[in-house]
Each structure stands twice: as structure tokens, then as C-alpha cells.
């Protein structure tokens, strides 16, 4: 037999990189854009990589023993990856998930045998029952339980530094000018960004945050950039942003942060389905939005890479449901006349690596 894997976790990573063109409009000026399709991992998201990395390291170090329990807070995707690891390594998995998480994700987690602890996503982060605190508390109560702590454990970033970053470098043969990635825990954009910058310091790294998240203001304070971020508050986009500063984002790796609105992210995700045949979630829409935003600043022939974290099948009842969108006062499609197309290139193109 050839090319046969021993269990499904061995199928993680090595994801395709695909050119995107139709969703970028005209006037590309020779700029090339590629997306790394992380939704093609076995459980449908980029977080499979992190789940495997953290669990296998914990097993190797003895922090986790066979038959043991993994407890994590997750917007859904990490928990699905951890469920795969639990099943393939003979462990149990419990996940703290917000009530507001999409129905499909909750159904998938139940189907995979994850024990769910649902918490109210509106509780302040310092509340012991909040999404941010609950998993740590539960793990402390269970002797031998492993708490991966994906929001603060830099092994999350290391996983992308060791796998996703090198894959992107190889797939582009080192010819890349800008990397655009969403920021949730910050593991992906920090780990990939750090790897790429070590190979070529001129590569610009752009992190896409969501309006209502606290990351952008923090970045502005640290970098001395103008703070044009939206006030902290609730948002609908799953997977990006946070309501408190956590330890994984490596703000020194980012050249710039952008903040997307729920509506812009959702509309862009819907456009990716229809214009690229890529059925992806709202954070992929956010990534596309980020790419579109920077296109006018790039020089002719620049090469941009972005990453689409998860599958749109997870959001059929939300982002891809017109009634759900309308019920939240959001548009279901862009008015064609107002469709954001990249503006014509700036008269004096910004070279990659130029500071903002
Ligand atoms: N998109 C989705 C759908 C996610 O679940 C996550 C993880 N929170 C991200 C993007 C962001 O990835 P990271 O945690 O590596 O910043």
C-alpha cells in the first residue's frame, strides 16, 4: 500500500495554496494573491494543527497521560481538533464554548463526542464563569487534566512557526511580499509572520482584527500608530478578536493591524463562495477584506498570501442565511454599484516593507 495514513490526524497540514482572482475585481496591476486553504484540514480548520501540536507535546512531556482529560476554551474549531486528538490518542475532551457559537459547530462537537460546557459570551472576561476564565478553573479542579491554554501558550505560535510558515515559504518559493492573516489567539499570524520575517525581513505582516476587539487599540498604543479602532464591544464574527489582551499575539511581528466590521467580513465570505467556489467562514471573509484593503498600496507584481481558516459549512445557519443576517440588520449582498473594488494603484506605489 502507498500513501496510507495510520489515523486521520496524520492528514493535518500540507494544505493547498490557491490563486484568488475573481473576488478581487479588475485593476490588479500584476499583483498576485494566493490563499492557503486551511479549511481543508481533516476537521475543517487551521486549529487542527495546533490541537495536534499541543496534545502530542503534552503526551511526550508527561503533562498528559493516556486516558487523560483535555479541557479547553474554544470558539469551536480548536475543540474539534482536540476531539480528533482525543479520539485518536485515547483521551477525553471537554470544551468551554460560548452559547453564541453557531449551531453547526455545537452539533459537530456533540457528534464528535466532546463534552460541552456552554457559557454566556456576554460575561466580562474577569468573571469566573466567563469564556476566558472557565476552562482554567475546570482544569484546576480535575487532577491530571491538561489545559492547552491556546490563548496564552506560545506553543500555539510555535506550531505555525514550524509548519504553516515553512509551507507558505516553500509553496511561494520564497517570493512573497505581504502576509495577511486574521487574529484570534494570534497564533497563526504571529507564528507564520515571525517565520517569514526571519527568512526575509522585508515581508510585511498584516493582522486583521474585528471591530469591538481590544487588540487594535493595544497595537496602536505599542507602536505609536494612530488609534482609529472601534470602541470595545460585542461582535458577531467567530474566531477573531478578544475582549482582553492575551499572551499569544506577538504585536512586534505585525507591521499593521486592520479592523473589519461583521458585515464586511460576512459579505466577503459570501463572495468567496460564489466567486471562488471556496465555501469558507467569516474570518476568511475578513482575510479577503484585508487583502482588498491593501491592494491599492502595493507595487506592480507584488505577491500577497493570505489564509482561510475554516469551512463555511459551519455557518450555514448564520453567515449564509439571509434571515439571520437581516435579523441583525446586516446586508445579504453588496449593492453592485457600491461594490468595493480595489482603487487604482497609488501614484507612488508603497514598496513592501515600507512602514505605515
Ligand atoms: N478563524 C477562525 C474561524 C478561528 O476559529 C480562529 C481561531 N480562533 C481564527 C480564525 C484565528 O486563528 P488564531 O487563533 O491562530 O489567531
Characterization of the model:
The protein is α/β, with parallel strands linked by helices and 356 residues long. The chain has two domains: 8-40 and 159-327, Rossmann fold (3-Layer(aba) Sandwich); 47-141, Rossmann fold. 34% of the residues lie in helices and 14% in strands. It has ten helices and nine strands. The protein has helices spanning 47-61, 77-89, 103-111, 131-141, 155-171, 187-199, 215-223, 262-276, 282-294, 322-327, and strands at residues 17-19, 32-37, 69-73, 92-98, 115-119, 178-182, 204-210, 256-260, 303-308. A six-stranded mixed β-sheet has the order 1-2-9-6-7-8, sandwiched between helices. The chain has a three-stranded parallel β-sheet with strand order 3-4-5, with helices on both faces. The chain is globular and about 60 Å long. The structure holds 4'-deoxy-4'-aminopyridoxal-5'-phosphate (PMP).
CATH topology of the largest domain: Rossmann fold
CATH architecture of the largest domain: 3-Layer(aba) Sandwich
User: What value does the Rg take, in angstroms?
Assistant: 20 Å
Q: Report how far apart the termini are.
A: 53 Å
Query: How helical, in percent, are the residues?
Result: 25-40%
- Pattern of helices and strands: EEHEHEHEHHEHEHEHHEH
Low-confidence stretches: 343-356
Amino acid at each position: 500500500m502507498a500513501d496510507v495514513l495510520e489515523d486521520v490526524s496524520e492528514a493535518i497540514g500540507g494544505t493547498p495554496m490557491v490563486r484568488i482572482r475573481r473576488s478581487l475585481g479588475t485593476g490588479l496591476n500584476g499583483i498576485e494573491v494566493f490563499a492557503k486553504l486551511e479549511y481543508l484540514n481533516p476537521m475543517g480548520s487551521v486549529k487542527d494543527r495546533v490541537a495536534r501540536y499541543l496534545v502530542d507535546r503534552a503526551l511526550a512531556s508527561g503533562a498528559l497521560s493516556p486516558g487523560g482529560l483535555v479541557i479547553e476554551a474554544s470558539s469551536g474549531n480548536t475543540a474539534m481538533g482536540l476531539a480528533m486528538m482525543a479520539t485518536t490518542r485515547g483521551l477525553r475532551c471537554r470544551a468551554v464554548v460560548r452559547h453564541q457559537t453557531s449551531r453547526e459547530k455545537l452539533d459537530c462537537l456533540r457528534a464528535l463526542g466532546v463534552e460541552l460546557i456552554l457559557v454566556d459570551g456576554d460575561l466580562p472576561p474577569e468573571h469566573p464563569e466567563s469564556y476566558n476564565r472557565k476552562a482554567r478553573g475546570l482544569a484546576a479542579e480535575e487532577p491530571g487534566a491538561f489545559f492547552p491554554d491556546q490563548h496564552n501558550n506560545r506553543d500555539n505560535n510555535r506550531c505555525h512557526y514550524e509548519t504553516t510558515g515553512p509551507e507558505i515559504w516553500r509553496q511561494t518559493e520564497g517570493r512573497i511580499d505581504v502576509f495577511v492573516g486574521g487574529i484570534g489567539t494570534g497564533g497563526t499570524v504571529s507564528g507564520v509572520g515571525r517565520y517569514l520575517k526571519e527568512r526575509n525581513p522585508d515581508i510585511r505582516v498584516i493582522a486583521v482584527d474585528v471591530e469591538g476587539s481590544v487588540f487594535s487599540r493595544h497595537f496602536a498604543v505599542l507602536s505609536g500608530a494612530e488609534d482609529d479602532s472601534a470602541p470595545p464591544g460585542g461582535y458577531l464574527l467567530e474566531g477573531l478578536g478578544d475582549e482582553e489582551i492575551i499572551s499569544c499575539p506577538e504585536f512586534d511581528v505585525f507591521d499593521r493591524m486592520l479592523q473589519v466590521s461583521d458585515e464586511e467580513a460576512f459579505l466577503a465570505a459570501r463572495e468567496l463562495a460564489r466567486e471562488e467556489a471556496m465555501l469558507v467562514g467569516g474570518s476568511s471573509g475578513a482575510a479577503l477584506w484585508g487583502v482588498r484593503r491593501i491592494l491599492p498600496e502595493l507595487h506592480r507584481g507584488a505577491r500577497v498570501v493570505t489564509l482561510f481558516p475554516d469551512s463555511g459549512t459551519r455557518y450555514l445557519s448564520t453567515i449564509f442565511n439571509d434571515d439571520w443576517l437581516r435579523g441583525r440588520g446586516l446586508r445579504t449582498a453588496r449593492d453592485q454599484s457600491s461594490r468595493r473594488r480595489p482603487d487604482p494603484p497609488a501614484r507612488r506605489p508603497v514598496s513592501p516593507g515600507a512602514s505605515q
